[in-house]
Write a structure and sequence with these properties.
With 512 residues, the chain is of the alpha/beta class. Strand 17 and strand 18 form a beta hairpin. The protein starts with a helix and ends in a 15-residue tail after the last strand.
Length: 512
């Protein structure tokens, strides 16, 4: 929550300094607003208000406008009703530098945005000949009564904003229509985002830059209250925000700060480092991950971990020297070891084949943890995997995988010494006997239990929260329990379990 909100709620208990601090925070917000251009966003659509469609456009607008130095002052969601559109557009146009609308510009009966915006400026709509000609080519129609020509019926004062499609390098086929300071975007997210990326730098980018920072703290918000209030007193020209997290695996509170000078920002960051248990948290560990892994390796003080990590990187590089990207897949089950393996392989893959998708195989057991199933689906999306899920025993699943994708010649595994059959494995081990013929690649074979958690925790790589509940190995839910070595009794006499990364004796990993 914003600190100023918390101070208002506790206004009777505020000291004079804190009360003045709250008002100073309001003054700062006003000062930033005066320096930055402002924007209002109007999302138009009955389907949003009825809960039939989830709005993602306002988030996209707000995030990207801010990167252009534009402060989003208000977001409004309104129905497809002309009087409401007229009232909202008039109000927003008079209050903000930019107004961005989304939705209601298609060919159907409920697409009323152009008409509503025209009336907001005491204008009318008529066919724009340039767009009429384009519609005739696109839709191969000539009758202006055809619904498709509704796309060409614009306010008479409308401006057609063309740009170049960044993806193709060709001129945009359909322009972004604007009337005065109102920019009329389509409601379909893919079209909206494409139009914004193509024209945003030209239409909305300013010279203003928000000076902001954030710190991630391994302590709950209530325990930090006095220290946060101290920050508010020490830096009266800064707007602070405090946001507790009950589910994040790496921090408990996120503190944000927005100020008017880089010097203040640096001073605030140093003050927080000195006074609070700061966590080096990465919100996007899968981005530029190869460089991050190399830097993490260099910064580690654990010589054996550095050796094991370098060996893994060498094996992965060797794998892709032997095989093309289309010939390699990863065998991924959402467990901690497989997460390490996937992150390593994906890091190399994206650094060297950025336009390709890494292939993956998930061999699904009959009985699994629902949370792990969800985590795997999230991983497939986050790492942009070309995934195949097969619900068969491993030998049959592997055979089916190769039958469906005969290009695959190698599969990368998350096997570690101590796993069943690991004593017979090497970095590169071909299958034998009656198993499907494939090369098994084992980049983390010699990793210790502590190495796994050093890597995951050190690089902010998410993992199933079952590990935070005392499970150190995830097998069949019917016979897998939290590790007894992590059990303790809290002050109220309740039996609980420390998270898996707290286990210091790796030999007890599979104890249950």
């Amino acid at each position: 929550m914003l600190i100023k909100t918390k101070l208002v709620l506790g206004v009777k208990k505020l000291s004079l300094i804190q009360y003045q601090q709250f008002h100073t925070s309001k003054i700062l917000t006003s000062r930033i607003t005066e320096m930055a251009k402002t924007a209002g966003i109007i999302i138009i659509g009955d389907e949003i208000l009825k809960g039939q469609t989830q709005d993602t456009n306002s988030h996209f607008f707000a995030k990207n406008l801010r990167s252009y130095g534009v402060k989003v002052a208000r977001i409004s969601v309104i129905p497809d009703e002309i009087p409401v559109i007229v009232e909202e557009v008039r109000k927003f146009s008079g209050q903000y530098d930019f107004v961005l609308t989304s939705g209601g510009i298609g060919p159907t009966h409920d697409d009323m945005t152009f008409e509503g915006i025209a009336k907001a400026f005491d204008d009318k709509t008529e066919f724009n000949q340039e767009l009429v000609d384009k519609c005739k080519v696109w839709f191969k129609k000539d009758d202006l009564k055809d619904p498709c020509f509704k796309l060409a019926c614009l306010p008479t004062t409308a401006k057609l904003n063309y740009g170049f499609d960044l993806a193709s390098g060709k001129p945009m086929l359909y322009p972004l229509v604007s009337v005065q300071n109102v920019y009329i975007f389509p409601g379909i997210p893919q079209l909206l985002e494409r139009a914004f990326r193509n024209l945003g730098p030209t239409l909305f980018k300013t010279d203003f830059q928000f000076i902001t920072g954030e710190s991630f703290i391994d302590k709950d918000e209530i325990s930090l209250t006095n220290r946060i209030n101290e920050l508010v007193e020490l830096y009266p020209s800064t707007s602070f925000g405090s946001y507790p997290s009950l589910v994040n695996q790496f921090y408990k509170t996120r503190i944000t700060y927005e100020t008017t000078s880089q010097q203040d920002l640096n001073s605030i960051e140093e003050h927080i480092r000195q006074k609070m248990p700061v966590v080096a948290f990465d919100k996007s560990p899968e981005e530029n991950s190869w460089q991050k892994i190399e830097a993490f390796k260099v910064g580690s003080q654990d010589e054996e971990f550095r050796k094991n990590l370098q060996e893994s990187l060498d094996i992965i590089q060797d794998c892709f020297k032997r095989y093309t990207p289309e010939e390699v897949s990863v065998c991924y089950n959402g467990g901690k070891d497989c997460i390490v393996m996937l992150h390593l392989v994906h890091a190399f893959f994206k650094a060297n084949y950025p336009e390709s998708k890494l292939k993956s195989l998930y061999i699904k057991e009959k009985n699994t943890y629902a949370e792990v199933e969800t985590f795997i689906k999230e991983s497939v999306i986050k790492y942009k995997l070309e995934n195949m899920t097969i619900s068969l025993p491993m030998k049959q699943a592997l055979a089916e995988h190769l039958q469906k994708d005969p290009l695959i010649k190698a599969t990368v595994l998350g096997t570690r010494i101590g796993d069943p059959g690991s004593q017979y494995q090497e970095a590169f081990s071909p299958t034998d006997g009656d198993w499907p013929k494939i090369m098994r690649v084992n980049p983390i074979l010699h990793w210790r239990y502590k190495d796994v958690w050093t890597f995951l925790r050190g690089l902010s790589i998410p993992y199933p929260s079952l590990y935070d509940q005392g499970y150190t190995s995830l097998g069949n839910p019917d016979n897998t329990e939290p590790n007894p070595s992590l059990r303790y009794t809290d002050k109220d006499g309740v039996v609980r379990y420390h998270p898996a990364y707290k286990l210091t004796d790796g030999s007890l990993e599979r104890q249950d």
